[in-house]
Description:
Blueprint: E1 15-19, E2 22-27, E3 32-36, H1 38-49, H2 59-71, E4 90-93, H3 125-144, E5 152-156, H4 166-183, E6 187-193, H5 199-208, E7 211-215, H6 220-226, H7 236-248, E8 253-259, H8 267-277, E9 281-288, H9 305-321, E10 325-327, E11 349-350, E12 355-357, H10 370-373, E13 374-379, E14 384-387, H11 389-395, H12 420-423, H13 436-452, E15 463-466
Parallel strand pairs: 4-5, 4-11, 5-6, 6-7, 7-8, 8-9, 9-10
Antiparallel strand pairs: 1-2, 2-3, 3-15, 11-12, 12-13, 13-14
Helix pairs in contact: 1-2, 3-4, 8-9, 9-13
Amino acid sequence: MSGKEELGQSSPELFVLRDEEGPILYAPLGHLIARGNESAVEAALAYARDPSVYDAMEPEAQAVIRALGERGFFERHAYPRHERGFRPTQVTLFPTNNCNLRCSYCYAFGGEGGGNGEPITKMDLRCAQRAIDLVAQNAIERRDEGDGTHNFLVSIHGNGEPFCAFDLIREIVFYGQDIAEELGIPVVFNAASNGVLSEEQLDFVLANFNNVNISFDGLPEFQDANRPVAGGRGSFAAVDHTMRRLCEAGLNFGIRTTVTAGMVDAMPRIVEFVAAHYPTIEQLHFEPVWECGRCLTSSNTMPDSAVFVQRYLEALEVAQKKHMRLVFSGARQDMVVDTFCKVSSGSFTVTPTGDVTACYEVSYASDPRSERFFFGRFDAAQDRFVFDQNKLDALSELNVHNMRFCDDCFCRWHCAGDCAAKVLDGIDVSEHHGSVRCEISRALTLNQIQRKLSWKPKEEGSLTDAR
């Protein structure tokens, strides 16, 4: 890709992308894509800037403008705006920061107090119950207002392995089910786990959880090396057993694989292995390791972005043959949003200490980023959550509208500026200057655009489009 152009905000938002086939005209807000030659694209850009030039154009250029106009390329679309206000209908609970693994790249130093000497903690049950009360009541109110809400959601996650607090999880689930029955609104339970679970825990998951996501590094040798148990031995056998049981039960589940420089060349092979061994998997998520946390004290490094893209695309070809969905968090061309995640639009995540954070990756008060991302806490004396509206207002500004760096990027309404915890570490949102992840997001999003285009031979002045 070489070159992109955006029209002014008073004009339809168009970008020009280029690859080995030539120019691509892209209107992200209208989900419109057209491939043409240089003269066709130049005519489109000139007309979009100033429609009065149409009468002076050559007939061939006018035909291009008419064709694009019929497809909606020159329509003006409202920019996406995330929901303001804080009325969450879903909560993510971190039951504990304890962990039975010692993953070499763990962002949270799971099982070791975040690397900051904080104590191993388990969430107070009352804290979890009040969080569930809050989202359930919001769901009832929003349902009655007719905004499309039809359930409330409780996710179990952690800056440790949540099932290390299995007794608490059982109480959380039973309480959520009781509240759902009492209020007459369904509850959905999701869980993220490292997959090292007992038979009792697996039985409970299969009986009570709707969705499960397993952190797994794709091949036995990587799993054992990168994600050993606390005592040092490998964890593949335990995680393999868990995923086989999920498959046998017919439960759709996802796998999240963290890709290091030492693993990147094996990405296509990982897809082959996962497809062969875990046939009910819903999606495989590849994410390059971010050099933070325990990764800084190990030999793991982030893969070269160009190599990651190349291997990802090779893995994608394998995944499509296996009818498997392959994802990377920053490449989501079908989405038009102004925030990467819910960090600026009502994320409600409760840490083991009862602090409320807008970001999974910021879960300790000793983390310097907590000043930005912590916006409330459970007040045991009042038996309720207390929120800081000023913090919420500030979080609502962490969106791509305020990231001038992204203004001329065709991905800006897809990746929406990327993960705030990564790219805004210690800086104001207006100072956002991207990261190496931008290179990955742009390349993979361009590939998604290319795959939607027709590749038939094109006549001079013609356009081939896709929606």
